[in-house]
Design brief:
By secondary structure, the chain is an alpha/beta fold. It has helices at 38-51, 67-72, 85-95; strands at residues 2-6, 9-13, 58-61, 77-80, 101-103.
């Protein structure tokens, strides 16, 4: 999904891209009180695994029951939102070089 912004407004569209088309760095999908939920996060995890397997996904959720499913779909980690923020930062740091972590 490519989000674009111009003087005419914003657009969202599915676009095939190669790794060379992507900007370096991490991607954060933050969901707060919207129509996107944990099921969408799991779907995004599977898409990332299939299309960009070198990208590491860390789920950050109140619903830790999905952590096992997230790991099966390719998530490198799963962290409860009830834990201190430092735990999330640690999980992101550990996931970056290819390690795995599950913390509930």
């Amino acid at each position: 999904m490519l989000a674009s912004k111009s003087d005419a407004g914003q657009t969202l569209a599915w676009q095939e891209m190669s790794e060379n088309d992507l900007m370096p760095g991490d991607v954060t999908v933050r969901v707060s009180h919207s129509t996107i939920n944990y099921k969408d996060g799991l779907a995004i995890t599977a898409i990332v695994r299939d299309r960009v397997p070198e990208t590491r996904v860390v789920m950050y959720t109140f619903n830790t029951e999905i952590c096992e499913v997230a790991r099966a779909l390719g998530a490198a980690g799963c962290v409860s939102k009830e834990l201190p923020y430092d735990v999330l930062l640690g999980a992101l740091r550990q996931a970056a070089p290819g390690l795995s972590l599950v913390t509930h």
